[in-house]
Hints:
It is a single chain. The chain is an all-alpha fold and about 80 residues long. It contains 2 helices and no strands. It has helices spanning about 5-30, 40-70. The chain is elongated and about 50 Å long. The two termini are about 15 Å apart.
Amino acid sequence: xxxxxxxxxxxxxxxxxxxxxxxxxxxxxxxxxxxxxxxxxxxxxxxxxxxxxxxxxxxxxxxxxxxxxxxxxxxxxx
Length: 78
């Protein structure tokens, strides 16, 4: 049920990297009042967000994949 393929792991890491990077960019910009934010502050926030977000994405991606398949009516998903 919770089988992770290499593609699932790679896509999970990529989505976590992009997602945390974009969110931390805007949160750092809002908190500092500068746009674009200071690169040092943004990278520091991004690394913390990535360290927290990536394990969560890796652990929950098989669950969300199965939930998506359960609600899908595409015959290729069976």
